[in-house]
Automatic annotation (TrEMBL):
Keywords: Oxidoreductase. It comes from the Bacteria. It holds the Pfam family adh_short. Signal peptide: none annotated. Belongs to the short-chain dehydrogenases/reductases (SDR) family. NCBIfam families: PRK06197.1. Residues 259-308 are annotated as: Disordered. InterPro entries: NAD(P)-bd_dom_sf, SDR_fam. This is NADP-dependent 3-hydroxy acid dehydrogenase YdfG. GO terms for molecular function: oxidoreductase activity.
Length: 308
């Protein structure tokens, strides 16, 4: 099946492969995990609330009777918790697919993580930066690992500029979200450069516009909430369709390292994934190196040199 007509039905057997998905208890993360399990992957469902993850695992076993999902308690807003969650996996597991999917959006006031980092960037970018670093031993045990980080169309907004990364000078809810999603892409570009020459691939994707739990954080007031509800019915794609870019990036042979993939359909809400133009300057090695150094400073995490 050509990339122009791809659907998740074209995913090959994933028997013997292990996938870890963050934010896997609902929305795009759960749909991604379900499809990977349907194709034979062993899935690790990672999330902050043990009760929600246990419920998601039970739902997945009901949806895919052959699945044997496992749960990983993971709080992306707590660097020590990230380290502790990753440690047993890094020690002896092989992870073939990592989907950095979890995120928060439109947090009304500036809040911080347990480590004092601005919550949106701290969770969406720095939490996944630290998780990926800690999991590199498990990822590089794979013959050809895929690291897929879920960004968003918001990455292309002007407010996504990475100056004032922690929003210390000015906090705007969707500006912080746009920064976090731009950082996801710049991080992926730099990671792809560092993995060059190996069989491992790093890709970023965006799901288009989809109805997910992210909309729960809208700070636009009653009118804004009514607009989101109307958009959900008329403009936004489904969480099932929004999972397609992640699934394509994780499994398709044509998904190149460093790519930014999104839906090809009208208004980029659905359809076979295709390459999407990067935000201006996002592929700059100088910007990538600068964000990498700043991310290491803020998290205290240093990436191990990848094995080829």
């Amino acid at each position: 099946m050509t990339a122009q007509h791809w659907t998740p039905a074209d995913i090959p057997s994933l028997d013997g492969r292990t996938a870890l998905i963050t934010g896997a208890n609902s929305g795009i993360g759960y749909r991604t995990a379900r499809v990977l399990a349907q194709h034979g992957a062993r899935v690790l469902l990672a999330g902050r609330r043990p009760d929600a993850m246990a419920e998601a695992a039970a739902r997945l076993r009901a949806d895919v009777p052959s699945a044997r999902p496992e749960t990983v308690e993971l709080d992306l807003g707590d660097l020590a918790a990230i380290r502790d969650a990753a440690a047993p996996l890094a020690a002896g597991e092989t992870i073939d697919i990592l989907i950095n999917n979890a995120g928060v959006m439109d947090v009304p006031e500036r809040r911080t993580t347990r480590d004092g980092l601005e919550l949106t960037v701290g969770t969406n970018h720095l939490g996944h930066f630290a998780l990926t670093a800690h999991l590199m031993p498990a990822l590089t045990r794979s013959v050809a690992a895929r690291i897929v980080t879920v960004s968003a169309i918001a990455a292309t907004w002007r407010s996504g500029d990475l100056a004032d990364l922690m929003s210390e000078q000015r906090y705007r809810p969707m500006g912080a979200y746009a920064k976090s999603k731009r950082a996801n892409i710049v991080f992926t570009q730099e990671l792809a450069r560092r993995l060059d020459g190996s069989a491992h691939r790093a890709l970023a994707v965006h799901p288009g516009s989809a109805v997910t739990n992210l909309q729960r954080h809208t700070s636009a007031g009653r009118t804004g909430r009514l607009f989101v509800a109307l958009a959900a019915r008329t403009l936004m794609g489904s969480a099932e369709g929004a999972a397609w870019p992640s699934l394509y990036g994780a499994t398709h042979t044509a998904a190149a390292s460093g790519a930014f993939l999104g839906p090809a359909g009208r208004d980029q809400t659905s359809g076979t994934p295709k390459p999407t133009p990067l935000p201006a300057g996002a592929d700059s090695p100088e910007l990538g190196s600068r964000l990498w150094r700043e991310s290491e400073r803020l998290t205290g995490v240093t990436f191990p040199a990848p094995r080829t």
